[in-house]
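seq as requested:
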Amino acid sequence: MELLYNILFGIIGLGLSLIELVFKLIVALIAGLIITYKRKSCGSFLLAFIIVYMYPLAILLTIFIPKKVYRLDREIRNDPAFKTVDPIVASAFALSGIIAKVDGQVSKDEVRKAKTYLGEFFRLDEQSIHQFEEAFSYGKNNPTQYNLFADFLARSVPHMTKHQIFYMLMLIVMKDDKTIDSICEEMLIKIAGSMFISQPEYEFLKAQATGMGGYASNSYESKEDLIKKYSNVLGVSEDATLQEIKKAYRKLAKEYHPDKFADGSRPQSYVDMAKNKIVEINEAYEYLQKVKSN
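struct tokens:
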């Protein structure tokens, strides 16, 4: 009988140990995810996971850890053009100045476009726009710093806002015949790289800006080409599972949903771009879903 009790208590003890282990792993995982989201660092995940696994109550400390805020380079922050204004708006104006001056001169039309597009997008009145003229001039005079502004914007604004700002840069340098000079496009490609805008995303935005439409279906494209193209649209790998494809689709569909523009707060050009983008997203999802389901 004593042996039976010992076995029973051993099983109960083992069960409790397993429950404790699973509990600590779950709590540590949650803490790691919270810290990774707040600090934007994979290294932070490992550190938080280890600490909370050893001391589960330490998860309460994650409440007090602030979310990481990206900043411009110190030298730029201390410049009078950026010291007292919104750094996100100022960075957009600076990139506008850079792209406008890349061909050697800034036209009055480019200045007008920058003020109009950015003013509408960020809902600025005339007085507010005037406050960012120095940031525009700073960009003109410091073209090599494009990567600092582009990287800052890419890390500070939502995915769609990033696309809209880049789309605006294209419109600024686009000529009346809806073409973009090669020297301007070279800079746009550099800026796109620093903003983590992929080649397919760049091509889509360019097509929208120049009036050439988005990805058009081509009945002569091979299945492999279509899978590659539509995978790029959704931002997934070509061998992504159906579940991964659905997750990417839902995220993009939410970002570009027409309801986001129902209040009329965005310029019509952005609304049209978003509408075309959601059509492209739906087309990509429908094709990949069909292929992966077979």
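Residues 74-209 form a domain with the TerB-like fold (CATH 1.10.3680.10).
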